[in-house]
From TrEMBL:
Chain coiled-coil ranges: 264-291, 383-417, 637-712, 845-886
Domain RecF/RecN/SMC N-terminal, first and last residues per copy: 42-1013
Subcellular location: Chromosome, Telomere; Nucleus
SUPFAM superfamilies on file: P-loop containing nucleoside triphosphate hydrolases
Pfam families reported in the protein's UniProt record: SMC_N
Region of interest called Disordered, as start-end residue ranges on this chain: 1-33
Subunit structure and binding partners: Forms a heterodimer with smc6. Component of the SMC5-SMC6 complex which consists at least of smc5, smc6, nsmce2, nsmce1 and nsmce4a.
GO molecular function, one term: single-stranded DNA binding
Highest taxon in the source lineage: Eukaryota
Protein name as catalogued: Structural maintenance of chromosomes protein 5
Gene Ontology annotations of biological process type: double-strand break repair via homologous recombination
Recorded family membership: Belongs to the SMC family. SMC5 subfamily.
PANTHER family referenced in this protein's UniProt entry, alphabetically: STRUCTURAL MAINTENANCE OF CHROMOSOMES PROTEIN 5
Length: 1057
């Protein structure tokens, strides 16, 4: 059919000396709108010295553009021009990696100019490529600019030449089916989603990544915090014992401080008592002196009367009378002395008897009190025995506590090792590797696990061999090599069921996928076994490069499973090397030319360019194995569990011993306290009784025999009186005046009596003075003692000179000072007890306490950090929830729309297909993907579109229909598909062509480029289509000789019968 002149083809070959005979179509925005172009559509493509073209201009239409031409004429050159002219990367095209390779051979430079429709004024992008330096110069609307500015301008028009959903060149057609679900989702979001959808998705993935990091940080901090708490818990008892010992030492210090104060207080009270007695004795002395004063006055009065008489007698008596009188006086005085001595002895004896009676009464009372305490032996040996036993108990307790600490450490270490094993198997109680793998399968792929249980219950329904998911039946010989197997075999195949027969697989899929709605993967083994297929070259030839095995030799698997892996993934021909291989990797790639190799920690993929023959290699780090290293050492686990049981039993026995020791310790302490109190009281009573008895014995030994003394006194007085009588007789004989003598004798007798009474009172006064002198001396001694004790107490308590009261701070230390005993015996007893208790705490260190306190501060800081991280994690989860709502709901609607069109297209072809949003875990946003499932035969079930399950033509059909499903949703201004119909059978090609024409020529669709080297006959075309025929090559008709009218005329003549 004829095409409108405004879109008439003017693509032709020009030599360097030729010029175009036609002007290019005008590039106005009005013309673009009139032609139905959307924002960003291509109006014109001009190529100079580009690949196969000297100079060519292409004017595509606004809807479907079908570029037809023989192979090698330059159809794909137009695709390359679109990509490179819009700042695309050479990697998108899959041809040469240098832009200079796209310049026509023999030319030094080439250029591509693309005019894009824009409502505000068309955008003309020009790229000139220099071969010499492999560089490009850019222009926007004929003005020089940078590549970045061009990229920004292209991006504003929603053009994505790197997106396979928009731009699918010939070399990338096969890669579309190889795209993972994740890659397909991202490409779809960029192609037809709202601009913010992909941004929300990236934001979600970033949030989720940070959330995982925070979760890991929180988990690590929680684990570290728990370990720190456990370590502090183990040291807590030592710290408590340390502080308990410190309390005992503090109490000892307080007792030692209080003891001098108690000694001082005791001496002070004794001083006060002595002072009181001294004052009483002083008063008594005063009263005795006052009582003696009348006698002295009377004596003086008698002497005053006697003196004149004696004077008179002296005057009348002779010298001899005077002598006799003196003798008589002497005898009277002698009698008085004798009587005074008797009186003193009588008084002394009476006082002794009184003191004896008082002492006996005190001894009796004390003995009665001592008897009331009961007859008992000396408790000192018992107290010493109790102290020795207490020390022994404390040593045993310390030894048991040390053993308990060692057991706790052993238990923690055993628990740690057991937890490592349990971490590998996830759940306690799994006994072998198979159950561990099944549990992993159940956790990660619940649908697959459900299908596995159904298969085990219904295995008899299948005729051929059916194998459980590969991850369960593959046995890696060395767990260190599991990473190679998992890196080489995709996860979808590791969880896939393997069937020997096609009928069994369809029966299985009908049940689990259609009936039970389970998402499972299945594969079928090749009809001809490939499990023993030899490698392309012997392993011996590879050993010099560091290779030690092929992948197949690293694991065991059933025949059909191994056959499938050899057929699909060439495990028989992929070598595994070492660090030596990595060190000479360039030589390995260059000389061996193998497509895939493994070194110790990396995977290398090698490709050879179809155009430049260059070898391109890529490498990626191997990830640790997740499924094939699930091994459990049952013996080790059993030994650890037995060790834990033994430790628990020993700890229980130690706790029982500790409880017994605690009970015995309490009993001994109570007994010791009772004995100490008894010993103190009994000792005091015994000391008092002993002192009183010694005093009593001393007094009894000093007994005075009054009767003998009285008889002796009477005899002495009688003898003196006889002498007096003799003297008186002699005196009377010489006296002249008897009256004077009698009067003198009377007065003398009275005086003698008065003097006797006075001497008695003087003796009592003298005794009182002696007692007073003694009390005064005792007072002075006690005063000196008190001052010494006060000075000593002040030095111990660090008091300033002059202070005489107990320091206030000692009373404020938890009232401990005031609560201490107030007697020396009780203080001594408590001191001994506290020292004994303190000596029992051995093996304690200040460093342990410092470490405990430091770790306690660390724990507080970690708790605060953990709270902060937890709050941050909560905030991230809130952000994730908000971003998820903004992203997921529109995405589901978009996928539903794509699925609706995709399913309609497949139904129109009498096939079935569906598109859904797939995610193994709703919270893993980087694992979301678009899954395409198709079936081309009514007898089969829907299968996921993969590089190996469908044929090449089926993959091409599925790819084309998916792209057409995006056409009406399209946010991009144009799409390019290059030779996608090559692998289709005629029926599918015709159906797909009809769908493409119907969809791409619709009302609300954008520009579409469909490149093909051939077309079927009698296809249906639409008026909105633009057909661009490519005639290029050295043997083509020169442009100036070409006539379209003549060509059409000849074609019509051939159709006339």
């Amino acid at each position: 059919m004829d095409l409108p002149q405004k879109r008439k083809r003017i693509s032709y070959e020009l030599t360097n000396s030729q010029t175009s005979s036609r002007e290019a179509a005008p590039s106005s925005s009005t013309n673009g709108q009139a032609g139905g172009f959307v924002e960003g559509s291509i109006l014109r493509i001009t190529m100079r010295n580009f690949l196969t073209y000297d100079h060519s201009e292409v004017f595509p239409g606004p809807k479907l553009n079908m570029i037809v031409g023989a192979n090698g004429t330059g159809k794909s050159s137009i695709v390359c021009a679109i990509c490179l002219g819009l700042a695309g990367k050479t990697a998108v095209l899959g041809r040469g990696d240098k832009v200079g390779l796209y310049v026509k051979r023999g030319c030094s430079k080439g250029s591509v100019e693309i005019e894009l429709y824009r409502a505000s004024g068309n955008l003309i992008i020009t790229r000139e490529i220099q071969v010499e330096n492999n560089q490009s110069t850019w222009m926007l609307n004929k003005k020089h600019t940078s590549q970045k500015a061009v990229e920004e301008a292209v991006k504003e028009l929603h053009i994505q030449v790197g997106n396979l959903c928009q731009f699918l060149p010939q070399e990338k057609v096969g890669e579309f089916a190889k795209m993972s679900k994740i890659e397909l989702l991202e490409a779809t979001e960029k192609s037809v989603g709202p601009p913010e959808m992909y941004e929300f998705h990236c934001e979600l993935k970033t949030f989720r990544s940070k959330e995982r990091d925070l979760e890991n940080v929180c988990k690590e901090k929680a684990n570290f915090l728990e370990k720190a708490r456990q370590r502090n818990e183990r040291n807590k008892l030592d710290v408590e014992r340390y502080y308990m010992k410190k309390r005992h030492l503090d109490r000892i210090q307080m007792l030692e401080k209080k003891k001098p104060w108690v000694e001082y207080e005791t001496a002070r009270k004794e001083l006060e008592g002595v002072k009181k007695e001294r004052e009483e004795m002083k008063k008594k002395l005063k009263s005795l002196k006052e009582a003696q004063e009348p006698l002295l006055r009377k004596i003086r009065s008698v002497e005053s009367q006697l003196q004149p008489i004696e004077q008179q007698m002296k005057e009348d008596a002779t010298q001899k009378c005077k002598q006799k009188h003196d003798q008589l006086e002497y005898r009277n005085k002698e009698v008085d002395d004798i009587r005074q001595d008797l009186s003193l002895k009588q008084t002394e004896e009476a006082d002794r008897q009184k003191r004896i009676g008082h002492t006996q009464l005190m001894i009796k009372d004390l003995q009665k009190e001592l008897q009331n305490m009961g007859s008992m032996e000396d408790v000192t040996p018992q107290i010493e025995a109790v102290n020795a036993e207490l020390r022994k108990i404390q040593e045993e307790k310390a030894k048991l506590e040390g053993e308990m600490s060692d057991l706790r450490r052993d238990k923690d270490e055993a628990f740690g090792e057991l937890n490592l094993i349990n971490d590998r198997i996830f759940i306690f109680g799994l006994d072998d590797m198979m159950k561990v793998k099944e549990d992993k399968l159940r956790t990660r792929f619940r649908d697959t696990y459900t299908a596995l249980k159904w298969l085990r219950d219904n295995r008899d329904r299948f005729e051929g061999n059916v194998y459980e998911p590969m991850m369960l039946v593959i046995n890696v010989r060395d767990s260190r090599h599991a990473k190679y197997i998992e890196s080489h075999i995709p996860l979808n195949d590791l969880r896939a069921f393997v069937f020997q027969r096609q009928e069994d697989m369809e029966k299985f899929m009908t049940e689990v996928r259609d009936t039970q709605r389970l998402r499972v993967n299945t594969v079928i083994a090749p009809e001809e076994s490939c499990s023993r297929r030899p490698p392309s070259r012997p392993l011996e030839t590879l050993k010099p490069y560091g290779f030690f095995s092929y992948l197949r030799e690293l694991f065991d698997a059933p025949e059909e499973v191994m056959s499938y892996l050899c057929y699909q993934y060439k495990v028989n021909d992929v070598p595994v090397g070492t660090e030596k291989t990595k060190s000479m990797i360039e030589m390995v790639i260059r000389e061996l030319q193998m497509r895939m190799i493994y070194t110790a920690e990396e995977k290398y993929t090698v490709k050879k360019s179809n155009y430049s023959s260059n070898v391109v290699s890529s490498n990626s780090a191997l990830r640790p194995s997740q499924f094939l290293t699930m091994t459990v050492d049952a013996d080790e686990r059993r030994q650890l569990e037995e060790q834990l049981r033994s430790i628990d039993q020993r700890m229980a026995a130690i706790r029982e011993q500790q409880a017994k020791l605690d009970r015995r310790d309490n009993e001994l302490r109570a007994n010791k306290k009772k004995l100490s109190e008894l010993k103190g009281k009994k000792r005091q009573l015994e000391q008092k009784i002993s002192t009183k008895q010694d005093s009593l014995r001393q007094m009894e030994q000093n007994e005075i025999n009054l009767q003998a003394i009285e008889e002796e006194t009477n005899a002495k007085i009688a003898a003196v009186n006889n002498k007096k009588v003799a003297i008186m007789e002699e005196y009377l004989g010489h006296m002249q005046k008897v009256y004077l003598a009698l009067q003198s004798a009377g007065l003398s007798a009275e005086k003698t009596k008065l003097e006797t009474d006075c001497r008695d009172s003087s003796a009592e006064l003298k005794r009182a003075e002696v007692v007073y002198t003694k009390l005064d001396q005792v007072k002075n001694n006690l005063l000196t003692t008190c001052k010494t004790l006060m000075r000593r107490a002040s030095e111990i308590c660090n008091m300033t000179p002059g202070e005489t009261a107990v320091p206030e701070e000692l009373h404020q230390v938890s009232s401990a000072f005031s609560q201490l005993p107030d007697t020396l015996d009780e203080i001594d007893a408590m001191l001994n007890e506290e020292k004994t208790r303190a000596e029992c705490f051995t093996g304690l260190s200040d460093a342990v306490v410092e470490e405990y306190n430091r770790r306690e501060r660390e724990i507080q800081n970690m708790e605060k950090e953990l709270d902060d991280k937890t709050n941050a994690l909560t905030t991230y989860r809130q952000n994730i929830a908000e971003a998820k709502e903004r992203w997921l709901n529109p995405l589901k609607q978009l996928v539903d729309q794509i699925n609706e069109r995709f399913s309609d297209f497949f139904r129109s072809m009498q096939c079935a297909g569906e598109v859904d949003l797939h995610s193994e875990n709703e919270e893993e946003y980087d694992k979301y993907g678009i899954r395409i499932r198709v079936k081309f035969r009514s007898s089969t079930q829907l299968h996921e579109l993969t590089p190996h399950h469908q044929s090449g033509g089926e993959r091409s059909v599925s790819t084309m229909l998916y792209l057409m499903s995006l056409q009406e949703l399209n946010r991009c201004p144009f799409r390019v598909v290059d030779e996608i119909n090559q692998g289709m059978d005629p029926v599918n090609e015709r159906r797909v062509f009809d769908i493409v024409v119907r969809t791409a020529c619709g009302v609300n669709t954008s520009q579409y480029f469909f490149i093909t080297p051939k077309l079927l006959q009698n296809l249906k075309y639409a008026e909105q289509m633009t057909i661009l025929c490519v005639h290029n090559g050295p043997y083509m008709l020169p442009p100036h000789k070409w006539s379209e009218k003549a060509f059409i005329r000849r074609a019509k003549r051939r159709q006339i019968p």
